[in-house]
Amino acid sequence: MEIAKSLQQTPSSYIREILAAASDKNVISLAGGLPDEKTFPIDLMKPTLETLSDMPEVFQYGATAGYTPLLNFLTDYFQLPDTHIAMACTGSQQGLDLIARAYVNPGDKVVMEAPSYLGAMQVFGLVQADIVTVPQTEFGPDIEALRTVFYEQSPKMFYAVPDFHNPTGVCWSLETRKQVAALCEQYNVALIEDAPYRELRFSGEAIPLVSDFCPQHSIVLRSFSKIASPGLRVGIVSGKRSYLEPLIKIKQGADLHSSVPMQALLLGLLKHDNFEYHIDTIRTLYKSRYETLYSELLKKLPKGCEVKQVDGGMFVWVTLPNCDTFKLAKELLKDGVAVVPSPVFYPQPEAAKAALRLNFTNATNDELADAISRLATGLAKHLE
After folding, report:
1. Which of 377, 367, 193 is nearest to 289 (CA)?
2. How far apart are CA 4 and CA 7, in angstroms?
3. Distance, first Cα to last Cα, the chain
4. Three-state SS annotation for the chain
5. Do the Cβ atoms of 350 and 274 come closer than 8 Å?
């Protein structure tokens, strides 16, 4: 049986391939966006795990939108406007898929920063969207380029990761957030704000969500994979009711509902007295690892390579002199360090500037120092 044309046009995920190679115990992986499994709050979840056996109702079919006690809690927790509702998804990645399936017709224009999150490009590619990109600055998207795209191409939506962007680690400035929100309202473009790293800020003060400035023109995707556990597979989508009702309709046909026991388990975790302490512990750990990675890069990167500081998240972006980054990544893998080359984060890979994405959350400080030594040696040989 012939597969759908949309799938035929979707390339295999390079990250999946490199993660498979990086599973070798002799390889230090800076490739995947994995939280450290030692941070998973198993002890905080034990009380709820032990009481699930006394909650037979959570093992029955549930509401498509999600477990009502969890949604009620999160409505207050996220301080959602009265006009907004929330729904639970099987990871925020499913929320993104539902948005694409509910709203994007083949050829509809979807705007993204370049580089951008690979998983979003795959989702929008599967619904045959016309992905239009704008350059990214150290403060967020190039506002004038965004204005021009909105004015000339009338896109349906703008997908963005404003807090500790994947892959670059950039955090949008407050002024950029206000300007983007104003443009979305002016040109009637829906903002899809993906916020999986927002809680992982380890320096500076939190900045309001972009959607706070355009609440009636936005959908927000939130994840608990980075601060609780990826295996729970619970993400939350929120927005005004008219935006979310089509997503609920699509989800009903997709999987009926996400796991109710896992939603109940997440609710117990969020209500635990020590949950905020758990978040602080993660931030402290990841800050230490980032500082190790960043300092080692500053000391050891060859001339012509550059890395920018980040205030949170899981990644740093290393820009390089012009070179074949796929070939480089394969050479580095032989040297025992896994990285992700920049072209995989561009809808048009040939437009990518030479760079590498490095993850710092899933390796120890000693491993990070060792990995950067290997990286620097491999880079120097490749750039000779």
Report:
1. 367
2. 5
3. 49
4. CCCCHHHHCCCCCHHHHHHHHCCCCCCEECCCCCCCHHHCCHHHHHHHHHHHHHCHHHHCCCCCCCCHHHHHHHHHHCCCCCCEEEEEECCHHHHHHHHHHHHCCCCCEEEEEECCCHHHHHHHHHCCCEEEEEEEECCEECHHHHHHHHHHHCCCEEEECCCCCCCCCCCCCHHHHHHHHHHHHHCCCEEEEECCCHHHECCCCCCCCHHHHCHHHEEEEEECCCCCCHHHCCEEEEEEHHHHHHHHHHHHHHHCCCCHHHHHHHHHHHHCCCHHHHHHHHHHHHHHHHHHHHHHHHHHCCCCCEECCCCECCEEEEECCCCCHHHHHHHHHHCCEECEEHHHHCCCHHHCCCEEEEECCCCCHHHHHHHHHHHHHHHHHHCC
5. no
Q: Which amino acid is at 264?
A: A
Copy the structure tokens of residue 8: 């035929």
- The answer to whether 237 and 95 are in contact (CB under 8 A) is yes
How many CB atoms are located within 10 Å of the residue 83 CB?
12
Question: CA-to-CA distance for 259 and 229, rounded, in angstroms?
Answer: 14
Q: What is the mean pLDDT of the chain?
A: 94
CB 359 within 8 A of CB 30: yes
| This model's pTM is above 0.90 | yes
- How confident is the model at residue 16, as a pLDDT? 65
Residue 282: both structure tokens together:
């993660």
* pLDDT band for position 14 (cuts 50, 70, 90): low
